Amino acid sequence: MTDTRTTVVVITHNRRPELLRTLNRLAELPERPTLIVVDNASTDGTADAVTRHHPRVRLLCPGRNLGAVGRNLAVRAVRTPYVAFCDDDSWWAPGSLSGAADLLDRYPRLATVTARILVEPEGVEDPITEELRDSPVRGPEWLPGPALGSFLAAATVLRTDAFRTAGGFHPRLWLGGEEELLAADLAANGWWLTYADHLTIHHQPSLVRDPTVRRAHGIRNTLWFTWLRRPAGSALRRTVYLARTVPRDTVSLRAFVEATAALPWVLRERRVLPAEVEARMRVLEQAQQRSSARRYLG
Questions:
Q1: pLDDT at position 42, please?
Q2: Which of 174, 162, 172, 5 has its CA nearest to residue 80?
Q3: Which tens digit of pLDDT belongs to each residue from 147-184?
């Protein structure tokens, strides 16, 4: 069942045991995908371990922690029509990469396919899965599944050329909700995003994480996306809503201060979305405000 259509890209930082488990799982896939690992300046022996235990994996070591932009670096080396992202604490189920590639082959205006997420070791659905399945975004009749306004990078297969043309992940966002801006730019370029319930990725959340930093980056990046792409009225409403609803603590304050300090470059790069894409964003925004998963649909 070897399938040469998709390359899997994994970014990692100081999670050697989790990464090796993920690479073991990916190496067992019947598709036998090409694997690229970007080691974001790990200090725990990650690079040596990958070289020793998985010599066929292409290892990229940029020498500093690029965050999500490490995926951009990897995509430059991708030679397949499709690229699947995968975190170092997640892995694709057998057959799911081929299933996503089949959809991308069949629907030339489709840019991304996001899979169902099972949280391990219990094997239960991630709460966000139900929201993906019931996405309120309206798509064309030909779309093979629910239309999405954004995607989850670690559970998504993308069309490589569409990713490159849209510019990949913005370098300033680093990590944390970085998909929302790219998804909007894909939509502005005429692409559609979908969810595929028959495809699966497994996620066993690493214990080596700093949720405080991730939350701060998530708030900051949401503000930056809002100011970079949304019309003035929508941007103002979204900013006020976030200011009212985020936890009132130093993490949120730091996120707002950092976001505001960046206004000079944000305004220089500001490019408002086409009206039809902005309409999707408004629908998605309303759903996000009701989200029981406490996360964005992207």
A1: 97
A2: 5
A3: 999 999 999 999 999 999 999 999 999 989 999 999 99
pLDDT higher at 209 or 263: 263
**Do 298 and 256 contact (CB within 8 A), yes or no?**
no
Task: Compute CA distances 276 → 137, 189, 235, 249, whole Å.
Answer: 11, 12, 16, 36
Q: What is the dihedral of CA 218, 87, 136, 281, to 10 degrees?
A: 40
- Residue ranges of E strands in the chain: 6-12, 34-39, 58-60, 82-87, 90-92, 110-119, 124-125, 156-159, 192-203
CA distance 202 to 96: 11
pLDDT at 293: 56
| Cβ atoms of residues 78 and 7 within 8 Å | yes
Residue 184 exposure: Cα atoms within 13 Å on the Cβ side: 26
Q: Do the Cβ atoms of 221 and 135 come closer than 8 Å?
A: no
What is the C-alpha to C-alpha distance for residues 47 and 88, in angstroms, rounded to an integer?
13
How many Cβ atoms are within 10 Å of 41's Cβ, its own excluded?
A: 15
Residue 57 contacts residue 86 (beta carbons within 8 Å): no
